[in-house]
Amino acid sequence: MLVFWKEKLVFLAVPKTGTTALEGALAPRASIVLRDPPELKHSAVYRYRRWLDPFFEKAGKQKMETMAVVRHPVDWLKSWYKYRHRDDLVGHQNSTRGISFDDFVTDYCRGQQPPHAVVGSQAKFLLDGQGNLGVDYLFQYEDPDRLMAFLNDRLGVTPELKRLNVSPPLELEVSPEVEEKFRRKRPEEFRVWEMGAD
């Protein structure tokens, strides 16, 4: 999470959406950088609204606006699959070694997910309790030009992004049947991604 105090802007870091690269580029410009613990770095909307927003409002007598990046749900799961496929997780319950990507997506859609498929939810991160978008500005990972234009306008800087926290390269495809199941079982994941196009 990055806080830009003078600009009254808070960047909420949705995991696996390129936030590590953005934080690396923008941290020197930020007033506050929350890197650890992960619960603070990746504070979801509900956690931010409950704890940090009131603190910032009382501390500075100002209302902060929020922004975040959302990734296409299939690509987001690809990134998680790759991340959990790395060598240092072999033999760990979170490892995706020996599991096909279709099976990983299917496991993610279950009510009771096995450990390797417990990766959170972009929708739960970004939507409030009523299903409304909980951030002021949402950008699709797949449209970096729109995000960069916003950052340039709001912060007066266009960050140079370096690839950080990159998952191992793997060619992954989801079958049409499994993608249809994903869309049917988790429609909110696709709905929140579509909200980032506005």
TrEMBL record:
InterPro entries found in the cross-reference section: P-loop_NTPase
Name used for this protein in its record: Sulfotransferase family protein
